[in-house]
Design a protein that fits this description.
This protein is an all-alpha fold and about 140 residues long. Helices cover about 75% and strands about 0% of the residues. It is built from five helices and no strands. It has helices spanning about 1-15, 25-50, 55-75, 80-105, 110-130. The longest helix is centred in the N-terminal third of the chain and has 25 residues, at about 25-50. The chain starts with a helix and ends in a 5-residue tail after the last helix.
Length: about 140
């Protein structure tokens, strides 16, 4: 399936819509992981904005965001191990969601929140640097 995505990127490159470095397989995979994380962040933000699924537009945005996020992650999982993919996806998603909650929704934070998020970041870094045993 990734082959079809590479063809799409080559077509977009020829039209001048994406830079050439996106056409390499490793960059496409990382782009898809970033896209999956971005869609998850969008969906989570829409989840909060949907007010208990009482606002239809935000509810539809939430559902479509999660479907798109999981769809793109399935393609990433063909090339990056599950433990690395999920740790990165959830870790980056958690940190960014915490920042969104503070800066967009004006939710509070304290020293323990910052410490906990910092430990998650350290865990994700460790998994990405040394957690790829056997591959």
């Amino acid at each position: 399936m990734l082959y079809n995505i590479e063809i799409l990127y080559m077509l977009l490159y020829k039209r001048g819509l994406v830079p050439l470095f996106f056409c390499r397989r490793s960059y496409v995979i990382l782009f898809l992981l970033a896209l999956s994380i971005g869609l998850e962040l969008f969906a989570t933000t829409m989840l909060k904005a949907s007010d208990g699924f009482t606002r239809p537009l935000q509810t539809i945005g939430c559902v479509l965001g999660y479907v798109g996020s999981f769809y793109t992650m399935t393609h990433v999982l063909n090339y990056i191990p599950l433990s690395i993919t999920y740790a990165t996806w959830s870790g980056v998603g958690l940190v960014m969601t915490a920042l969104i909650s503070v800066f967009i929704f004006s939710e509070g934070y304290n020293m323990y929140t910052i410490l906990g998020i910092g430990l998650i970041v350290v865990g994700v870094v460790i998994l990405n640097l040394w957690g790829n045993v056997g591959h």
